[in-house]
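Human: I would love a firmer grasp of how sequence relates to backbone shape in proteins. Take your time, and here it is.
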Amino acid sequence: MSNTTYDTIIIGTGLGGLVCGYKLAKGGRKVLLLEKNAQIGGCLQTFRRFGVKYDTGMHYIGALDKGQIMYQFFEELNLLKDVHLSRLDENGFDRFNIAGQEYKYASGSERFVETLSRQFPECRLELENYVRRIQDIAEASPLYNLNKAGDSSYLESPYLHSSVNELLASISNNKLLQNILTGNLPLYAGVKDKTPAYVYALLSDSYLQSAWRIVGGSDSIAQSLANSIRSFGGEIRTNSEVSKILCDSDKATSVQLTDGEIIEAKHFITDIHPQRVIQLIDSKLIRPVYRERVQQMENTVGNFTLYLKFKENSVPYLNHNYYYYAEEDVWATYHRQQADPQSFLYMHQCTEDGQEYAQCAEIMLPMDYQEVAKWAGTTTGQRGSEYQEFKQRKAERVLNLLGHLFPGISSCIENYESSTPLTYRDYTGTTNGSTYGILHDKNAPELTSVSQRTKIPNLIMTGQNIHWHGMLGVTVSAMLASKQLTVDS
């Protein structure tokens, strides 16, 4: 057993865990963060292949202009000194190829309306109403405004009980416009008639304010937070996997690592999937009905991702994200499983602000876990030739499509690598490699959401499965978790 008793142990060093660690350590708490992998950061992790760096999860961020909500959080977390940002094209930060026709999302309410109104002049008033509606939903949310965090009235909001497609249908009868406004579906892996309108509105509102890439990789966020935590006296240990959260009859008392070490603390925060949290706890404090409900929660779909390395100075840098849908029905196209890819998100990696040529890029398309379930018991690098052949076939189909959409690009690709939900599962700890964790369902919001508080009074959960995902969602979740722990103690 460790001779040190900590005020707070944080399990997991994703963005949620690091933000909690920052807030608590800065407030004078004796904090220990435990990470099972060799690298901290969760979805902020990066990796190097072919001499270049790739992000694993955090590809672009919204609302980072001065005074906007993420800018305020970056200021509070002292990130602006270390994290360098590059603004995406304000005239079209997201571009969509839907059934062969291109459409753009522009930054700022007026520019957004004006840009789409050129193709839908008869829908200008509907587009103006769309912008107002998503702003109203975001501003009403206690998750968007920490001052309203204790306001329970939002639980009765119609936007928890209506779906994304219902929201868009209430704004416009134009089916094509509804599909265009659904175009950022890969950012939340939504399901038609399930995903609540607030998930979509919070995310879309932040990107319409402003959209940015992180120069040099999202690990700069993780490293900045880690450096600050250590400067405040906090500790971070990697290669330290928690195997048990130990409890007495009233509360959590300690954690046990896989090597048998036991570390005590007064308080605990988990920044891992709630399904994994439940597996770590063998205590009557967690009732069987709650345990069963959490374990049966549906998760969002995973991704097949291609990581491309381009030949030097061969591919002009795209300062926007490119979404492709083979057919007009975006919902159906995104979730359709066929041999040939039906949809994807294509992004260049930003290595310097104002760059002329791209060094590398990523292509992400949805992949159901069942496609790779036969290799579930294997580990990264040890999955055999059949798995490698499966990935190769998948990659070739994606590259053939990319070459059709961007003529000449095939000859510019020097190397590529690919990953599946199994890879994401192993590096980030998400159930079945789910991209965004628990799938929220407007038909049963109480049964598809997890409270930060648990039946163990000194254990609080944070991360993308609490409230909602993305940089903004996780940061808010961590701020609330830190605040609750401070009040409780």
Notes: Residues 149-155 have pLDDT under 50 and may be disordered. The CA atoms of residues 64 and 330 lie 28 Å apart.
